[in-house]
Amino acid sequence: MPTRVLAVDCGATSVRVCSVDLDSRREPEVLHRWPHAPVQLADGSPRWDWPGLLAAVEHGLALGLAAGPVASIGVDTWGVDYGLLDDTGALLSWPHCYRSERTSGWRSVVDRIGAEHLYRTTGIQLQPFNTLFQLAAHDRSELQRASRLLMLPELIAHHLTGAVTGEVTSAGTTGLVDIADGTWSAELLDAIDVDSTLLPPIEAPGRQLGQWHGIPVTLVGGHDTASAVAAVPVRPGDGTAYVATGSWFLVGVLSAQPVLSTAAAEANFTNEPAVGGPVVSGGVRLLKNVTGLHLLERLRSEWGDPPLDRLLADAAASSGDVPLVDPDDQLFASPGLDATLRDITRLGSAASRGLIVRCVLASLAAATARVLDEVADVTGVRPRRLVALGGGVRNQLLLDLLEAHCRIPVVRGPAEATALGNALVQGIGIGHFADLAEAHDQLIFAPATSFRPDAP
């Protein structure tokens, strides 16, 4: 039986299809990468180019099949966004982008339900793009025509296989799951006037959903951050924190139980299911979202897309302290990020681009450190090390700044951590590994070989 699997990893800025050999210690091989962004429809709404995204997925999978035998396919994407199917299984309209302004009235929903009650029910941080608020703002006539709602990972799997299902980690991003039992909250769905029959049953990853071109499609940790964390042997209570470095920084720890205290709510922590089963048995990823490398991506766009390596080299050469900003400052939501940064930091027009980049990266590191301080406050345990995952691990300056600001050792994890975690769960689904512990023992990739949960 082949031991090579294909991991479809869709982020909010690119689609990647990776090949992973479960009997090899090589990192995932990116077979196809397609950059994408929301498109504006005639009604003014930002939507995901769903036909383009599906075409990119299928092209990458075809490349994977052409390269040799494949044992399984798995799909993960970003969280919170969804698609609506009619009673024939057809998509009613392209999925909305979570950056849409249609949720501008989200606070009224919170006020109606009650912020404390909402947090204790779901454990999910309050963000205007939560699926709860998106559905509250969704066009009622389209909702009435819908037969099923699928989160994006399962929507892609539906396209490949026809299967209709929900998965615990992608459902866990919605703000609609009762954290006590891991099921959809009938109370919250009723509060936003959404028929509970729209939502499919929630199941743990590992099951084979069907086939695409004769290859089994395995349900994996659909939320990309959940798959990324599954790639490394982090354990609840082992003193390890993680930061998934992408357009967003997801900073947190694994916790055996949800943390629903007033302090956690006030700090706006989220309790999202970890790969391994429902919240009640699989533990949670206690984390916060911080605006991440999206800021650097925007700067590069404003500057005409200069080579990233050159910008990072210039930033590294700009030694010394730089002013720090809050990456989540609403001032940065408007166009003209370069001018805004130069203004509020008082660096002025004479500052080099390298200095501006260093300011951004140092600010991301400082924001990560603040979250780790808050982790210590709400859990009573201060992390002793930080494992960095995702594309940012290729950026040595970022890793150095993280270590300087967080004041704990930083371990470089896999760059393609999400695809790797996706693949490991496929390995469990096809019987190649008994569980994640066995997968980690057999398949720890350089440069993460020094990372062990019992390391000092």
For the largest sheet, list the strands in their spatial order.
Answer: 17-18-16-15-19-20
Briefly note the CATH topology name of the largest domain.
Nucleotidyltransferase, domain 5
Number of domains: 2
Q: Looking at the structure, what is the overall shape?
A: globular
Largest sheet: 6 strands, mixed
Low-pLDDT parts are 277-281, 445-456
CATH superfamily of the largest domain: ATPase, nucleotide binding domain
Helix share, percent: 25-40%
Mean pLDDT over all positions: 93
Which band does the percent of strand residues land in? 15-25%
Radius of gyration: 21 Å
How many helical stretches?
18
Care to describe what's here?
- This protein has two domains: 4-224, Nucleotidyltransferase, domain 5, CATH 3.30.420; 233-413, Nucleotidyltransferase, domain 5.
- Helix 9 (224-230) crosses helix 17.
- It has 456 residues and is α+β, with helices and mostly antiparallel strands.
- It has a six-stranded mixed β-sheet with strand order 17-18-16-15-19-20, sandwiched between helices. Strands 3-2-1-6 form a four-stranded mixed β-sheet, with helices on both faces.
- It is globular and about 60 Å long.
- The chain contains 18 helices and 20 strands.
Question: Gist?
Answer:
With 456 residues, this protein is an alpha+beta fold.
Write the layout of secondary structure elements.
Blueprint: E1 4-10, E2 14-21, E3 29-35, E4 39-40, E5 46-47, H1 50-66, E6 72-77, E7 82-85, H2 106-113, H3 115-122, H4 131-137, H5 140-145, E8 148-151, H6 152-161, E9 166-167, H7 168-171, E10 177-178, E11 183-184, H8 186-191, E12 202-203, E13 208-212, E14 215-218, H9 224-230, E15 240-245, E16 248-255, H10 262-266, E17 270-273, H11 279-282, E18 284-291, H12 294-302, H13 308-317, H14 337-345, H15 353-379, E19 385-389, H16 396-406, E20 410-412, H17 417-429, H18 436-442
Parallel strand pairs: 1-6, 9-12, 15-19, 19-20
Antiparallel strand pairs: 1-2, 2-3, 4-5, 7-8, 10-11, 13-14, 15-16, 16-18, 17-18
Helix pairs in contact: 9-17, 13-15, 15-16
